[in-house]
Structures are given as C-alpha cells and as structure tokens.
Amino acid sequence: LADDVTPDDEEFDLFVKEVAREITVKAGQKCTAIRRAIVPRQHIDAVASALRARLAKVVVGDPSVEGVRMGALASHDQLTDVGERVAQLLQGTEAVFSAKDGFAPQGAGTAEGAFFSPTLLLSRKPLDNNDVHNLEAFGPVSTLMAYDGIDEALALAARGQGSLVGSLVTKTPAIAAK
C-alpha cells in the first residue's frame, strides 16, 4: 500500500479486500498468495483493524455447506507445518487475527479435517525480523509489515528474495513509476 493512500480512499478498501481474498482463496495454498503486505506505518493499525473485521466474517469448513468461504489445507502434515511456521513467525510478530478469535469450522466431519484459521500477523519492525521474509507458512497466513517512506518499502519488497508476484496500490503514477 503506497503512502499516498489513506483510510478514506477507495484504494484503501481495494487493498484490504485484495489482501483478505489472497489469504483465503484456496486456503492460501497457492504460490502467488500474499505472504507479506507492506503498509505505511501511519496506516498500519487502520489496515490491521479493517483486515481483522473482514477475516472475522470468513466462514471456514466443508465447502458443500452454504456460506462456507474457505476449505481445508491439503493434509494433516501441511496443517502441522503451517502451525509450526506460524509459531516461529509469532516470535517476532503480533497476532492481529488467528484461531483464538473464534475459529470453528462448519460442517460434518470438520473436527477431523485439516482446517486452519485465516491468520494475520503484524511486524512493526520488519527490517529487524528476518523470519517475516524467509519463512513461508503455506496456508492462509500473511504478515503486515510497517514501513516509513518509499525507499524503506522498496527495501522490504526486495527482502522477499524474488517473490513471484507483487502488487502496488497507489493513486499516484509517479509512485508507481518509482
């Protein structure tokens, strides 16, 4: 999210909607799913709050049940792996939204399934935290990273070590060009 976008802008809403969608589509199990979201420090709490509210509405469970928007992970091994990686990430981040926020998969047999709550973490000092750049929880997990100024945002993006995809939400062509 570029620092020209404020919580009052339609681009802000677009950013929040897209991050939430990327976390939950296919339970975050795709190579292009969002793992790190780079957000201006002055808006980090507003983004966190808006995403928390949106993720709280996601119904997880058996996809055949009406209203379910996110299914299970591929296996119990993956469930264990994602949980371990989130535990590692939590050593240097704070949880904005996780299973502790009322996670209850819907549908028969879900207690035996490999369901994982949409999880949003926050790193207020991402330049000091290698794990947010190097660890990937291959599931519905993303970390918000606060930045100060475009050069710091670019440095954080570069720490992704060649991420497959990057998106920039801005109102200003000059910011996009830089």
Explain how this protein is built.
- This protein is of the alpha/beta class and 178 residues long.
- Helices cover 34% and strands 12% of the residues.
- The protein contains 6 helices and 4 strands; from the N terminus they run αβααββαβαα.
- It has helices at 10-24, 44-56, 76-89, 131-134, 150-158, 173-177, and strands at 36-40, 94-97, 119-123, 141-147.
- Strands 1-4-3-2 form a 4-stranded mixed beta sheet.
- Helix 4 links the parallel strand 3 (119-123) and strand 4.
- The longest helix is centred in the N-terminal third of the chain and has 15 residues, at 10-24.
- It is globular and about 50 Å long.
- The protein starts with 9 loop residues before the first helix and ends with a helix.
- The mean pLDDT is 95.
Task: Give the helices and strands, then pairings.
Blueprint: H1 10-24, E1 36-40, H2 44-56, H3 76-89, E2 94-97, E3 119-123, H4 131-134, E4 141-147, H5 150-158, H6 173-177
Helix pairs in contact: 1-2
